[in-house]
Amino acid sequence: MEKWFNVGKIVNTHGVKGEVKVVSSTDFPNERYQKGNELHLFLPKKKEPVSLIIESHRTHKNFDLLTFEGYHDINQVEIFKEGVLKVKEDQLQELEEGEYYYHEIVGCKVVTSDGGEIGTVREILSPGANDVWVVKGERGKEHLIPYIEDVVKEIDIEKGLITIDPMEGLLS
Known about the structure:
This protein has 2 domains: about 5-90, Beta Barrel (Elongation Factor Tu (Ef-tu), domain 3); about 100-165, Roll (SH3 type barrels), CATH 2.30.30.240. The strands form 2 sheets. A 6-stranded antiparallel β-barrel has the order 1-2-5-4-3-6. It is built from 3 helices and 12 strands; from the N terminus they run ββαβββαβαββββββ. It has helices spanning about 30, 75, 100-105; strands at about 5-15, 20-25, 40, 50-60, 65-70, 85-90, 110, 115-125, 130-135, 140-145, 150-155, 160-165. With about 170 residues, the protein is mainly β.
């Protein structure tokens, strides 16, 4: 069974020449949206993805604007709204040591360096300078853990375990 990974969601069209507005969920927009790269569009009411080749990419007001080969009119791309752009697992690139894909972190168990259990990473937010992990505890309480060296001490993807050293007030 093929594994797919989200790159972004098409939220609207932009202009009349087939450009679409994408809310990106990739750490690598320059690579993913490079001219000639292939993305697969999953639409809500379709079973099979649509294969699309990037023709152009630019950014505008926190959105990635894309055009695709063969789609040069707003009427052709109107149906793409609400579709999710994805790549296959074999399109993922190797990361540097100490770097991780979101899908590797989400689902990991988080513990403190003294052995206390915090919960499981449910979501990753990217509000600015560093990512913030949303960790849900057993009783449903959510903790926001900044992905910074002072807090995150060890990540073991094989074991699905993250060890943190929480700064004062972080878990209260």
